[in-house]
Design goal:
This protein is mainly alpha-helical and 122 residues long. Helices cover 79% and strands 0% of the residues.
Length: 122
Amino acid sequence: MPIPDPKTVAVASERSSDLLVWFEVHPTVSIVAFALACLIVVIAYFAGGRENFRKLWMSILCALIISALAMPIFIKFGRAFGLLKTAGGEIFVLLLVMIFISALAAHIYEIITVSAREARPD
């Protein structure tokens, strides 16, 4: 078994500690954003989410599965343009993925609710 080069091992161990990179956000801002997101989910649940609970979870599940299977495309895109070599590029690719997932979930939900409404007789 070959002996690993110490420089390679050092670089690999340094990289594994910085697996996910994001821009600097004050902890208070993160807490407020997370609390706001939780509040929106609770308000939406009582504003109609209770009646559409299955539709909401179906759209979330479908969006997660589709986006997980499409993630290699985003990684190839980032590598092709050299974006994954910098922290800013990694953030940009992650933002693209988040926009993709959000838009996908919203559109799947729209398809499910519109299709269900059209299928129901008046």
